[in-house]
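Record type: monomer structure entry
Structure origin: computed from sequence
Chain ID: A
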Amino acid sequence: MLLDGAHLVGDAVTAGITMQIAAVTSASMETGDLQTLIAALGEQGVEVTLVSASVMDAISPVRSPSAIVALAERPAMGTAQLFGRGVPLIVVAVDVQDPGNVGAIVRVAEAAGATGIVAAGVSANPFSWKALRGSMGSALRLPIAAGVTADEALDAARSHGCRIVATVPRDGRPIFDADLTGPLAILIGGEGQGLPRPLVDLADERVTIPMQAPVESLNAAVTAALILYEARRQPVAATTRKHQKQER
């Protein structure tokens, strides 16, 4: 996978990601922060190569070329790794084809305390350069499974005691009324079509985010954020109410 920019390369160093080679421009070597990063790469045995500005223009995919890029080995993850940390809270992105959306979902999933992500169906590669930049390094830390079908993801989630929650644009239970506690696998549909009907029918719960007309749907990453934070809020609120009753 291509890590573009000092932020991603630094996150990869911290996360212990195996890197093969890094390229920097001569001009960027003068900055103190980059010198520290290059030293850290050297300590991990990563080859660092000086390149010209024109070469960096060619290998950096962004409009304004970065000061450093690196090639790294993609983390080897399957669905089993998603359930190894506490109460499972899994996001299953189904046919989310925009890599920026996939990256944003990964980022908000880590921020909200999800235990893992599945990029199912024809979802964009969460380890592509654009998705990695969108995740702001979260894809290097959060367990992610890709290249699996939605049915395989659901089977793995059920085998670990998860309830399946499908997001639908209308006619579902409002997220503030739904029970989003305990082990969960939250299904987020792709742009335009949303979740396939057969997957919705397999879910234990169908939830809808209340919206004012004429808005009919939200971005996939925004949907994931709202539901994940509600899932995070509910157990905290229940514990607070319990303590308040005990104090009375």
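Annotation 1: DSSP finds eight helices and eleven strands in the chain.
Annotation 2: The longest strand covers residues 19-25.
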